[in-house]
Design goal:
By secondary structure, this protein is of the alpha+beta class. It has a single domain (about 5-140), classed as Gcn5-related N-acetyltransferase (GNAT) (Aminopeptidase, 3-Layer(aba) Sandwich), CATH 3.40.630. Helices cover about 35% and strands about 25% of the residues. It is built from four helices and five strands, in the order E-H-H-E-E-E-H-E-H. The chain has helices spanning about 15-35, 45-55, 105-120, 135-140; strands at about 5-10, 60-65, 70-80, 85-95, 125. It has a five-stranded mixed β-sheet with strand order 1-2-3-4-5, with helices on both faces. The longest helix has 18 residues, at about 15-35. The relative contact order is 0.17.
Amino acid sequence: MMAVPLVVEAAAESDLPAIAHLFGELARHHGRIQPDNPRYGVPSLRWRELAERALTDPDEEVLVARSNGEVVGFVRFLYREKPWGISCEIETLVVDEDWRGAGAGSRLLEATEEAAIARGARGIRADILVGNDEGAAFWQARGYKGFALRFGKPLGED
């Protein structure tokens, strides 16, 4: 595959529509993997609200990958204090379906790792949805290893 010119930089408020669209794309992708999971049936307005909050929350960082000015992916991460030091927690990393395999995800991850190192983080982690074999392969190819299993349970009414 030919190298695609990509720029990774901090997200701007003007990136909100593209980020909200990518959140929705991620929800549809996860919905195909876990069709019975109610988490992925939320309305698009809710994903836009989440994107807006991510861009305005001082505790979160959002980077975008652009090609010719167009947002083709983003990563959202934050830092948590752990007993062993600061951990960088990747909350979301998504690349537009048409751009997967072109290096945008790798570039976003590299930039996140650089930011984490600069912040003094001693580790970095990301959660992968059970059944997302493509996603797991992405992380494993970049040196990430499975070390925990997270459990969840819906509470309350829909």
